[in-house]
Design goal:
- With 694 residues, the protein is α+β, with helices and mostly antiparallel strands.
- It contains 23 helices and 20 strands.
- It folds into 4 domains: 152 residues, Glutamine synthetase, N-terminal domain (Ubiquitin-like (UB roll), Roll), CATH 3.10.20.70; 255 residues, no CATH class; 125 residues, Glutamine synthetase/guanido kinase, catalytic domain (Creatine Kinase, Chain A, domain 2); 127 residues, Four Helix Bundle (Hemerythrin (Met), subunit A), CATH 1.20.120.1560.
- It binds adenosine-5'-diphosphate and magnesium ion.
Length: 694
């Protein structure tokens, strides 16, 4: 391989390139825009655009595009070439500051949840200078936000940037109280990405995978993940070649791809980057997902990002590691070594505890999609109930503070906040507690509910905003206190007492926990349909408008989009199932029934006793075939009803109650039929073929 440090970021217009190619004054001015959000002057933009264009052309680019993240959850781009006529029949390569700053894609076909009627297809993209431009497929990509002309956010990046601002504002107020030196606080994110790789030829022969990205039928193979032999197992050569190329592609565009390994399920893998500022991390995760798909095809593979592609083996998640750091390099979730730092750590910890407890609904909503619902609560992913894992030691320390009793750690200490250093508690390395939705892992929180296919923008918008809100309440109280230390101790104690019900260190998969969580009054929102209505509760409207993250209108539009997408996905899956059952499975089973019936007749004609196996199989297949056609009819009718009622707010409940259960019913019958139908009759590749390719 090439020299990696040289390769890394070679297609990124990063700080180093800026410094090298921009006049000093322009570079300084751009740096201020990046760091402080100052407005960018058009004369500066013109110089930057010229330098970017020249750099991009040297790297082989011919086009530029504003690269943005509409509400579809994936990225969008519209390419324009630098080519401009010079008036003499020739062309010159041009790119202006205006084109850099602002783009106007025809926005009518992006989901807007009613914010922008299709007849006024106007929306614009604006350069986000806090994320570096880069080159992809011969185009200079300019990371951008996407807004309506009324200023409403039509994308996932705008609210993210607003939420980062909110958490910065409130965290800075707290740091000021402690006298901690910093100009800026920023959320950091490291998103671990799980995915499946399957052979493209096999994949292409399954309508459900091609259309829906997940299997809707399929009997369990003889071996799933029971032997636990895939996790961290040796990587097979074909996959290894894919991973190598993926890393190189990612490094070129500046993605800090770090860790790769096999995951629990057969042909499931994971990639983890080194964490970075939330905005960059989210852009990079989008790039990672896109690059995974592209590179897989070059290796005759398909990368499946859907959350639950196969029943019976684990689905894929995207663990969102989150922390707050200052521009001076301090991690605010790292327990400090001095008493005062510790008190500050405890306060930030309390803010997160309070935030998670008060806004369980929002965390659940931030990961609510039709695909992820199949994963949450299955015995492999965190449950749909939100709780927090702090580890036994830290929990014991908090309990001691709460009860005002000494903490019996390595030595007995009466914890006095702001005076004593926290007893050292080991990072939980042995008991990682994979079952917790929101786990403290030493100096960061790991939110494990996000699904593998989704943008992690939403979860981070929510985490930033709810933590900002709790920090705001803390700052309001402490700024007015007559004695800071007493007020601080009192606040920490009160917060622990009020919100410790959210802390749970046990097994999140167990039924006991479901009962215990109900006893504690924690929310259990098993499906997206259950969760979404809460998005626009008064509490949430107040929260988001208070921090200027969403207007009420924006919030409602997002709720509509999520609602509609939930119903659309389920309806499409249901109709795909009907298609496969009607056109592939039933005819195949019918053909096998005929084959068996002919066998029966032939054996009888030969004067021999018909084998039991033949008659039993024949009988059962006829029953299953009837069951399938009955549920097929109902399912088709209900799926079409759902499609006609997409805008209706009850559509989600209808899908939950009247479509999903029928899909399961149809699947059960089909999967059983698969197990007793002769292999050569089955119309598409089985789970065995998919999961154990070479
Ligand atoms: P695992 O949870 O599988 O053991 P790792 O410990 O390898 O994973 O790291 C998980 C992710 O957390 C990585 O992407 C890493 O960069 C990220 N991470 C580490 N420290 C922080 C931090 N302070 N803030 C945010 N993310 C972090
Ligand atoms: Mg992890």
């Amino acid at each position: 391989m090439n020299n990696i440090p040289e390769l890394f970021g070679s297609l990124v217009f990063n700080r180093e390139v800026m410094k090298e190619r921009l006049p000093e004054e322009v570079y300084k001015s751009l740096k201020h825009t990046i760091q402080r959000g100052d407005d960018l002057d058009i004369t500066v933009a013109n110089v930057v655009a010229e330098a970017m264009k020249n750099w991009a052309i040297e790297k082989g680019a011919t086009h530029y595009t504003h690269w943005f993240q509409p509400m579809t959850g994936i990225t969008a781009e519209k390419h324009d070439s630098f080519v401009t006529p010079d008036g003499n029949g020739n062309v010159i390569m041009e790119f202006s500051g205006k084109e850099l700053i602002k783009g106007e894609p025809d926005a009518s076909s992006f989901p807007s949840g009613g914010l922008r009627a299709t007849f006024e297809a106007r929306g614009y993209t604006a350069w986000d200078p806090t994320s570096f431009a880069f080159i992809k497929d011969g185009s200079l990509c300019i990371p951008s936000v996407f807004c309506s002309y009324g200023g409403e956010a039509l994308d996932k990046k705008t609210p993210l940037l607003r939420s980062m601002e909110a958490v910065n504002d409130q965290a800075m107020r707290i740091l000021k109280l402690f006298g901690t030196e910093a100009d800026h606080v920023e959320p950091n994110v490291g998103a671990e990405q799980e995915y499946f790789l399957v052979d493209k030829d096999i994949f292409d022969r399954r309508e459900d995978l091609v259309v829906c990205g997940r299997t809707l039928f399929g009997a369990k193979p003889p071996k799933g993940q029971e032997l636990e032999d895939h996790y961290f197992g040796a990587i097979k050569p074909r996959v290894s070649a894919f991973m190598k190329e993926l890393d190189e592609e990612l490094w070129k565009v500046g993605v800090l791809s770090k860790t790769k390994h096999n995951e629990a399920a057969p042909c499931q893998h994971e990639l983890a980057p080194v964490y970075s500022s939330a905005n960059t991390a989210i852009d990079h995760n989008q790039l990672t997902m896109e690059t995974m798909k592209k590179v897989a095809e070059r290796h005759g593979l398909v990368c499946i990002l859907q959350e639950k592609p196969f029943e019976g083996v684990n689905g894929s998640g995207k663990h969102n590691n989150w922390s707050l750091s200052t521009n001076k390099g301090a991690n605010l979730l790292s327990p400090g070594k001095k008493p005062y730092d510790n008190a500050q750590f405890l306060l930030f910890l309390c803010a997160v505890i309070k935030a998670v407890d008060e806004h369980q609904d929002l965390l659940r909503i931030s990961v609510a999609t039709a695909g992820n619902d199949h994963r949450l609560g299955a015995n492999e992913a965190p449950p749909a109930i939100v709780s927090m894992f702090l580890g036994d030691e830290l929990t014991a320390i908090l309990n001691a503070i709460d009860e005002g009793v000494p903490y019996y750690g390595p030595e007995k200490t009466q914890m006095e906040i702001g005076v004593h250093v926290l007893p050292t508690f080991p990072k939980d390395t042995t008991d990682r507690n994979r079952t917790s939705p929101f786990a403290f892992t030493g100096n960061k929180f790991e939110f494990r509910m996000p699904g593998s296919a989704m943008s992690v923008a939403e979860p981070n918008v929510i985490i930033n905003t709810i933590v900002a809100d709790c920090l705001m309440q803390f700052a309001d109280e402490l700024e007015n206190a007559s004695d800071f230390r007493t007020a601080l101790s009192d606040l920490i104690r009160r917060t622990i007492k009020a919100h410790k019900r959210i802390i749970f260190n046990g097994d999140g998969y167990s039924d006991d926990w479901k009962r215990e969580a109900a006893r504690r009054g924690l929310l259990n929102l098993p499906t997206t349909a259950d969760a979404l209505p809460l998005f626009t509760s008064q509490k949430n409207i107040d929260l988001f408008t208070r921090h200027k993250v969403f207007t009420e209108k924006e919030l409602r539009s997002r709720q509509d989009i999520m609602q509609e997408s939930y119903c659309k996905i389920i309806a499409i899956e249901a109709i795909t199932m009907c298609d496969m059952a009607g056109k592939d499975i039933l005819p195949a089973v019918g053909a096998y029934i005929r084959h068996l019936a002919e066998t029966v007749n032939a054996v009888k004609a030969a004067g021999m006793p018909v084998p039991h196996h033949t008659t039993e199989t024949l009988k059962r297949l006829i029953e299953l075939s009837d069951e399938m056609s009955a549920s097929l009819k109902l399912l088709r009718a209900n799926a079409e009803h759902a499609q006609r009622n997409l805008g209706n707010e009850n559509c989600g409940f209808f899908c939950r109650d009247s479509v999903l259960p029928l899909m399961l019913e149809l699947r059960r019958a089909a999967d059983e039929a698969e197990t007793i139908t002769e292999r050569s009759f089955w119309p598409f590749p089985t789970y065995g073929d998919l999961l154990y390719y070479n």
